[in-house]
């Protein structure tokens, strides 16, 4: 493979490409490198490669002409990559695909960036190595070159090493140990000393799953898991942030069709379906909020039937779903009960189908690590303004960028809870 590196600072690469496996690969002619400086293609006497941005603002922008002329000198068919924060993340799968190329042109930006018209003049693949800012694309190019090179035949001492590394199977790697067997009272796991290769392979798979769940659980959401993987994950102890999330289905005060404050009646489907959400995600609590005594009595009869009456025997799963329901006369009553149990007042997050809110589901998830959260769910035409005003946060609507945003409350709560907690919370 031939790397064509377009950079204003070619000296940046001299040391990294002259040591370790990258240097050995160059000596064995597995890799070749060309360092191209756009400044060499500048025509003015100052060899200018940047200028002030149109519209004003700080910093300078890389000029098109020197860079375009440099890129035009690249080999025909050379795949051109622009290292930029707006690019697709560089992952193991992307690196493997890039390793099939014969020539890769890596464009390293500097200053405030490159004139945006470059992307219209060339067929570029935009790649990012992370959501952070660097001084230029050179460090990112080094990361990409090394990640891609590891897939090339002969680059690694043992070709099977690539298949066992972190991310290769979609998981983080298992832990490694070497001599001595004991150090400062810490012993190497006995299974690795057993000589039983089947047990060792199984242990390594389980530890890879455990590390991934603990440190990078989002990777599991992208992986199709085998039944044995799921069995393993279910046995691993982990924090349960869902226990800090409480729901309250508010029937008063809510808005009616005319936009006036009113009270709505209980709905059988809402009670049952939100109860299933409570049980499925292992939430801390589910409250039905209504000040009407006849509605409270109705809810009590329904819950009693499914949790202690004939319904409990006929449908145990339904009994479990409704066993977590509590009835309260006001939102404040629910807040006080949660505060009494947790020892701290819950953060109150109201939901609304209008506006933009001031917190997203990821933000709610972060709150759960430090305190209980009470999610207010409105019936009728939404929560009354008094509840929205008193809430600590208002959650962004599910489809706030669309014109139609009218889900049933039971559908909305299913979506919101899943976005907040996810599969591997």
Structural class: alpha/beta
Q: Count structural domains.
A: 3
Q: How large is the share of residues in beta strands?
A: 15-25%
Q: Unreliable stretches, pLDDT < 50, 5 or more residues?
A: none
| CATH architecture type of the largest domain | 3-Layer(aba) Sandwich
What best-fitting shape do the alpha-carbon axes yield? flat
CATH superfamily of the largest domain: SPOUT methyltransferase, trefoil knot domain
Secondary structure: helix percent: 25-40%
How would you characterize this protein structure?
The longest helix has 19 residues, at 197-215. 28% of the residues are buried. It is flat and about 85 Å long. With 425 residues, the chain is α/β, with parallel strands linked by helices. Helices cover 36% and strands 17% of the residues. The strands form five sheets. A six-stranded parallel β-sheet has the order 14-13-10-16-15-17, with helices on both faces. A five-stranded parallel β-sheet has the order 2-1-6-5-7, sandwiched between helices. The protein has three domains: 2-161, 3-Layer(aba) Sandwich (Alpha/beta knot), CATH 3.40.1280; 182-235, tRNA(m1g37)methyltransferase, domain 2 (Trp Operon Repressor, Chain A), CATH 1.10.1270; 241-421, SPOUT methyltransferase, trefoil knot domain (Alpha/beta knot, 3-Layer(aba) Sandwich). The two termini are 42 Å apart. Helix 3 crosses helix 5 (138-149) and helix 9 crosses helix 12 (316-322).
């Amino acid at each position: 493979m031939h790397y064509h590196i377009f950079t204003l600072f070619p000296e940046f690469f001299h040391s990294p490409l002259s040591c370790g496996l990258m240097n050995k690969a160059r000596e064995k002619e597995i890799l070749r490198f060309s360092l191209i400086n756009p400044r060499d293609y500048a025509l003015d006497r100052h060899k200018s490669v940047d200028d002030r941005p149109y519209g004003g603002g700080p910093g300078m922008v890389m000029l098109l002409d020197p860079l375009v002329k440099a890129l035009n000198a690249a080999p025909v068919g050379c795949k051109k990559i622009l290292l930029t924060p707006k690019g697709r993340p560089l992952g193991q799968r992307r690196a493997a695909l890039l390793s099939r190329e014969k020539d890769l042109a890596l464009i390293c930006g500097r200053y405030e960036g490159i004139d945006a018209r470059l992307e219209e003049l060339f067929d570029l693949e935009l790649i990012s190595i992370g959501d952070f800012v660097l001084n230029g694309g050179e460090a990112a190019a080094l990361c990409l070159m090394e990640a891609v090179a590891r897939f090339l035949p002969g680059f690694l001492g043992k070709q099977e090493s690539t298949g066992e590394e972190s991310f290769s199977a979609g998981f983080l790697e298992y832990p490694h140990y070497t001599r001595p067997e004991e150090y400062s009272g810490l012993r190497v796991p006995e299974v690795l000393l057993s000589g039983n290769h089947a047990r060792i392979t199984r242990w390594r798979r389980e530890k890879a799953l455990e590390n991934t769940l603990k440190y990078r659980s989002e990777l599991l959401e992208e992986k199709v898991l085998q039944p044995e993987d799921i069995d393993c994950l279910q046995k691993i102890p982990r924090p349960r942030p869902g226990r800090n999330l409480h729901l309250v289905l508010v029937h008063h005060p809510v808005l009616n069709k005319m936009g006036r404050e009113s009270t709505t009646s209980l709905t059988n489907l809402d009670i049952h379906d939100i109860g299933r959400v409570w049980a499925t995600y292992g939430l801390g609590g589910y409250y039905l909020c209504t000040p009407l005594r006849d509605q409270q009595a109705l809810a009590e009869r329904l819950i009693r039937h499914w949790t202690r009456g004939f319904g409990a025997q006929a449908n145990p799963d339904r009994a479990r779903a409704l066993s977590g329901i509590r009835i309260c006369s006001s939102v404040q009553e629910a807040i006080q009960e949660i505060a009494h149990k947790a020892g701290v007042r819950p953060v109150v997050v109201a939901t609304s189908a209008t506006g933009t809110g001031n917190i997203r589901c990821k933000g709610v998830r972060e709150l759960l690590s430090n305190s209980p959260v009470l999610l207010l769910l409105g019936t009728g035409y939404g929560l009354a303004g008094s509840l929205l005003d008193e809430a600590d946060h208002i959650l962004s609507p599910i489809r706030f960028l669309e014109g139609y945003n009218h889900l049933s409350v039971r559908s909305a709560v299913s979506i919101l809870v899943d976005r907040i907690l996810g599969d591997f919370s």
